[in-house]
Write a structure and sequence with these properties.
The complex is a heterodimer of chains A (about 180) and B (about 350). Chain A has seven helices and no strands. By secondary structure, chain A is mainly α. Chain A has a domain of about 120 residues: Butyryl-CoA Dehydrogenase, subunit A, domain 3, CATH 1.20.140. In chain A, helix 1 crosses helix 5 and helix 5 runs antiparallel to helix 6. The longest helix of chain A has 29 residues. Chain A is globular, with a radius of gyration of 20 Å. The mean pLDDT of chain A is about 95. Chain B has three domains: about 80 residues; about 100 residues, Beta Barrel (Butyryl-CoA Dehydrogenase, subunit A, domain 2); about 160 residues, Butyryl-CoA Dehydrogenase, subunit A, domain 3. Classes of the chains: A mainly alpha (about 180), B alpha+beta (about 350).
Chain lengths: ~180, ~350
């Protein structure tokens, strides 16, 4: 299956009476969903939840130059402050995972905030440094804004949609 | 950030104290302009306001991280006392070898654009200039100000505001923010001394910003707790409103912003006492991120509460009016975000990751 960027990440697989020997079974029979969702605590709070567009942020800093005007500095600084906070939260969750805890709510918070931050990057970029996006452009920034704009919708869908994550957080608050 | 046992014990005792002594009635009364003397006395008896000072100066050599943890509790309870200001005043005074007071103190200037100057007058000094929006200036038994002296920044200690022109003001949480003018006020020689130990106007401004960010993280926790409890109690259409997904999703956003605010203020607290430029960068991150969270979270906390949260009778406004005040004090979140941006841009794109991840 080809995605809207023209890339091949997903496949449709048909399984009909495929024999699986016991030694190829991961975990326990009937416990697959639990296995998958407990792994999500690692995935949702991991650095790729807020570092996928780091190169784009770096290009924005490059375009801003060493002494940007106040509005540009504030817009970039807001993103950097969000990133630094996400990194700190992710590190603290890594510590909880290391201790064998299950920070599912905390991980959902990091992913929800992380995807918001990443989806904001191309929005802020086109306000500060407008350009017509072109995926194959020679100029790094132009191709990055094309790629990040088109990949943005995926961020709040993969690994649990925004609505699912907020449902998990709500459960953590005792609301469900 | 791992919480030390000492910090945990301090937090528990501060929580108990504020739960007991800082009721809505106490905050309401203070907002009419009467200083909360009983609350101040109870907090002062714990030794927390001056605990960061060396033992020789009447303190306990406490960790600043513990004191900031106490400020988070004070913010949570909307404590109408100059706790942060007294901590900072003691810190400035001690850095200049000036005496501190047992009573409430305040500190200034708190605005970057204000300027005070000290000039020689015989054996003593003359103080001139303006310090605007000084918190609790009238209630403070001692004011510790930083002024430009003949050879650099100096601390000045004043016992009360006699000798200053005083213009009363307040923020939208009705906390006193008074403007003081000095027109050649004559002071004895021992009322001023040069600053040492890295204390400066800039250091005061950023510690003040971190104090407000930390207090805001406490106020956000309060607003979130109130919104979650209220949503579970309030029945509408035959069930608690917390059962509606639209309300749940809003509360999840509120919880996320609150968690981010606590994490961001801790980023700043962990930077305290390190390299000054690095400390400034990380505190800038804290004030910028907490200010952003305050704006988003206050809106949701009110939305969840409906009309009841808009009343004076209900305590949510004690938290939200402080959030709307404190996010502007010691520099707004856009002001600090611009500093974050200027810092990373000055170091260049290729240094962005090392700049972010360098140890404080």
């Amino acid at each position: 299956m080809i995605d809207l960027l023209g890339e091949h990440h997903f496949n449709e697989i048909f399984l009909t009476d495929v024999f699986v020997p016991d030694w190829l079974l991961l975990g326990k029979e009937g416990n697959g969903w639990n296995q998958v969702t407990s792994e999500l605590a690692f995935e949702r709070s991991a650095p790729d939840r807020f570092l996928a567009l780091f190169q784009m942020l770096r290009e924005m800093v490059r375009l801003a130059g060493p002494s940007p005007d106040r509005a540009t500095a504030a817009a970039l600084g807001k993103l950097v402050a969000q990133l630094a906070t996400l990194r700190s939260m992710s590190l603290s969750i890594a510590g909880m995972l290391q201790e064998g805890l299950q920070p599912n709510t905390e991980s959902a918070v990091v992913k929800d905030l992380g995807t918001r931050y990443e989806q904001d990057i191309p929005v802020v970029a086109r306000q500060l440094f407008p350009t017509e996006p072109e995926l194959e452009a020679v100029e790094t920034y132009v191709s990055m804004i094309a790629r990040s704009t088109m990949s943005a919708p995926r961020l709040s869908i993969q690994g649990g949609t925004r609505e699912i994550l907020r449902g998990i957080i709500a459960r953590g608050l005792g609301l469900r | 950030m791992a919480i030390r046992d000492e910090t945990r014990m301090l937090l528990e005792s501060m929580n108990r104290l504020f739960e007991d002594k800082c009721t809505k009635q106490v905050v309401d009364a203070a907002e009419t302009g009467v200083f909360a003397t009983d609350l101040w006395t109870a907090v002062a008896e714990t030794g927390v306001p001056l605990a960061a000072l060396p033992e020789s100066a009447g303190g306990a050599d406490a960790e600043w991280s513990d004191l900031f943890a106490a400020l988070r509790v004070a913010g949570r309870y909307a404590a109408p006392i100059p706790l942060a200001e007294t901590m900072l005043a003691g810190w400035v005074a001690a850095a200049a070898g000036l005496d501190v007071s047992d009573g409430p103190m305040t500190v200034g200037p708190v605005r970057a654009s204000d300027r005070l100057t000290l000039t020689r007058d015989g054996n003593g000094w003359r103080l001139s200039g303006t310090a605007s929006r000084v918190p609790y200036a009238k209630a403070a038994s001692r004011l510790v100000l930083i002024a430009e002296g003949p050879s650099g920044e100096m601390a000045v200690a004043l016992d009360g505001i006699a000798g200053a022109t005083h213009t009363a003001g307040k923020n939208i949480a009705n906390e006193p923010r008074d403007t003081l003018g000095f027109d050649g006020l004559v002071l004895p020689a021992d009322a001023a001394a040069p600053l040492a130990g890295g204390v400066s106007r800039a250091a005061l401004y950023r510690r003040g910003a971190l104090a407000r960010a930390t207090m805001m993280s406490g106020a956000l926790e309060r607003a979130m707790d109130m919104a979650v409890s209220y949503a579970q109690e309030r029945q509408q259409f035959g069930r608690p409103i917390s059962k509606f997904q639209a309300v749940q999703q809003n509360l999840a956003v509120l919880a996320g912003q609150t968690a981010a605010a606590v994490a961001a203020s801790n980023v700043g607290i962990e930077a305290l006492g390190g390299d000054p430029e690095r400390e400034e960068f990380l505190i800038a991150i804290a004030k910028a991120r907490v200010g952003e969270a305050a704006t988003l979270a206050a809106e949701i906390a009110h939305q969840v509460h409906g009309a009841i949260g808009f009343t004076k009778e209900y305590a949510l406004q004690l938290a939200t009016r402080r959030l709307w005040s404190w996010r502007e004090e010691f520099g707004s979140d856009p002001e600090w975000a611009a500093k974050v941006g200027a810092y990373v841009c000055a170091r260049g794109a290729d240094a962005l990751w090392p700049t972010l991840t360098a140890a404080a």
